[in-house]
């Protein structure tokens, strides 16, 4: 059994869009597939004739089974889109089960090797309720029957980010498509200090769509992929919204936002309304600005406070306020140390400031510092995670490698190994 | 201070006004002035006016030493110095004495500099040895013995994100700290 876990530690990162997986022997880069499953129409003539269609298809094979694009919305399931799966969402759980087995079988060693199951570390959103942990442990127990799993555990994604990043005392702000989680870590996740915000990259998409509609691009605004593209290529994050908007209104040509899709006649031009570029980034960080009221009044969905499991997701607090609330739930002497190490993780923090607009547009760390400064918090250190795509998986691997195997799972601690093999 | 011009040399020994009550300083000034007397064309001692009343002008006159008195407003020649005809070698004595004083000061500065350099060298050596010992204690990710696993593959085979990661140490103590507290 010597050297076992330096070959058979296995990480699984259930991201909102991508599923990253692989054993420690992958090195620095895991495998990745879309975190989705496709339920083909098994009653179709083609599928019955081929008699090959599984109930659910995952991984790289999905495109091979895609049928009518009209059915995509109902048949293509992204189980973790908002970080949480409904307890009764049978199809989503089916996808999770299938994709987990796909991952383990992809790296199953050949017979004859000393393999007795992987030490699996899976990572879920920090707001995942207990039933998600239970269902995932059941999935691992099923896989253990095939000899694929020796022991399993689950850690939260922000905790994994801190581990992967090598920082033992920090605040991890994880922002994905559906929500944002603020999680202080001090050798352990401080779960009582978790603050969840019901706002993520999806809200930036919403405001972008409204802007496109106002500009007369209503048809294009219905295509999510195109809206996301406009957000990523034309959206800006202002350091000071009022100042940036005024400058852009005074000199629209300097801030002109124009996007042409290569190979098409599709073109979007913000023209003299290019100041609206700054609304896209600001809305993510702080939706309470006066400028957003007209959009909300016209029906743009307002981020609401929602309760999922035991966690209340607040809709309208700004990210600076979320960080302050979270840190202030921690012991006073720990607070300065937490402010000294704030890690931003997730695609929703990928904002860039074009060089010629650097006096008005900024990046996520600078914006966060600015929001905290408004609240009287100075001397903070805010930085992006170095490997935003893989830091969760890295954290899973380190956790699985280092934690003693006799450290048993506890529902109080929400840590430890759950052995599934004798 | 030495003033030189047209074959003559004037020596002025100044007693600092802050030290006029310092007997040693007063004696030192008088001794230096007397050493110059007869070797410079004229030799003066400059005393603060507050100290001038204590000086024995007759004694200075006997040895040909002149007396300047000064305060914050002006300098007065209270007693003219005797003129001495001096040879070129004697005239250069002023320079020699001044140069000697400068040399002495330089010697002192050099000595202090040498001492400082020795201290800096010593500090550098101590810092280097501290740095070396800190580097040798840096965590190297190897298989720990917490679960009796022995490394089959070397440290080099671990992913790069293991290198220097403090969580390896922190996580390897999971359960041990709680057991230690309970025990």
Give your account of this protein's structure:
The complex is a heterodimer of chains A (422) and B (183). Chain A has 422 residues and is of the alpha/beta class. Chain A contains 17 helices and 19 strands. In chain A, strands 9, 10, 11, 12, 15, 16, 17 and 18 form an 8-stranded mixed β-sheet that branches. The longest helix of chain A is centred in the first third of the chain and has 17 residues, at 90-106. The radius of gyration of chain A is 23 Å and the shape is globular. In chain B, 47% of the residues lie in helices and 16% in strands. In chain B, 20% of the residues are buried. The model of chain B is unreliable at 138-155 (pLDDT under 50). Chain B has a domain at 1-119: Rossmann fold (3-Layer(aba) Sandwich). Chain B contains 6 helices and 5 strands, in the order ββαβααββααα. With 183 residues, chain B is of the alpha/beta class. The chains are: A alpha/beta (422), B alpha/beta (183). Chain A binds chain B through residues 1-7, 24, 26-28, 162-164, 166, 168, 187, 387, 394-395, 397-399, 401-407, 415-416, and chain B through 143-144, 146-147, 149-153, 157-162, 164-168, 170-172, 174-176.
- CATH H-level name of the largest domain in chain A... which superfamily? ATPase, nucleotide binding domain
Order of strands in the sheet with most strands of chain B = 1-2-3-4-5
Supply the helix-strand structural class of chain B.
alpha/beta
Termini gap of chain B: 82 Å
Give the low-confidence spans of chain B: 138-155
Number of domains as seen in the coordinates of chain A:
2
Query: Mean pLDDT score of chain A, rounded?
Result: 89
**Count the strands of chain B?**
5
Radius of gyration of chain A: 23 Å
